[in-house]
Amino acid sequence: MLRIKRRNRELLIDDRDKATYLNDGYDVIDDRGQIVEPATGGKTISYAEHLAEINALKAQIKPAQNEEVIVLQEKLQEAEKTIHGLKTEIGKLKSKEKKNAEAAD
């Protein structure tokens, strides 16, 4: 026999009926009332519980995204420094080329 619970209702059922009750939203519990196997369907939660779960998941996602953004910003700054250095070098080479062309004339 299994103990199952849904909201404030506890039942003792035969092991053969376990899948049916799990699908109907009942959790399998132990003698202390702790959930051993959660329901697989038919369960509803309040809007407040739903929002709390969403906020908890968002909190887990944000730190990972923030770290990625910081790494990408650092790479962008390095790339911009490289671009600036290359533009400066191109400018110097163009001015040398211009001086050499004027000297040759």
Account of the 3D structure:
- The chain has helices spanning 18-23, 47-104; strands spanning 2-6, 9-13, 27-29, 35-37.
- It starts with a strand and ends with a helix.
- Strands 2-1-3-4 form a four-stranded antiparallel β-sheet.
- It is α+β, with helices and mostly antiparallel strands and 105 residues long.
- The longest helix has 58 residues, at 47-104.
Compact summary:
The protein has 105 residues and is α+β, with helices and mostly antiparallel strands. The protein contains 2 helices and 4 strands.
Task: Provide the spatial order of strands within the biggest beta sheet.
Answer: 2-1-3-4
> Uncertain regions: pLDDT < 50 for 5+ in a row?
none
Give the strand tally: 4
End-to-end span in angstroms? Answer: 105 Å
- Give the C-alpha Rg: 33 Å
Oligomer type: single chain
Strand content: 15-25%
Mean model confidence by pLDDT: 89
Helix content: 55-70%
Overall form: rod-shaped
Q: Supply the number of helical segments.
A: 2
Largest sheet: 4 strands, antiparallel
Order of secondary-structure elements: EEHEEH
Jot down its keywords:
alpha+beta; rod-shaped
What is the topological layout?
Blueprint: E1 2-6, E2 9-13, H1 18-23, E3 27-29, E4 35-37, H2 47-104
Antiparallel strand pairs: 1-2, 1-3, 3-4
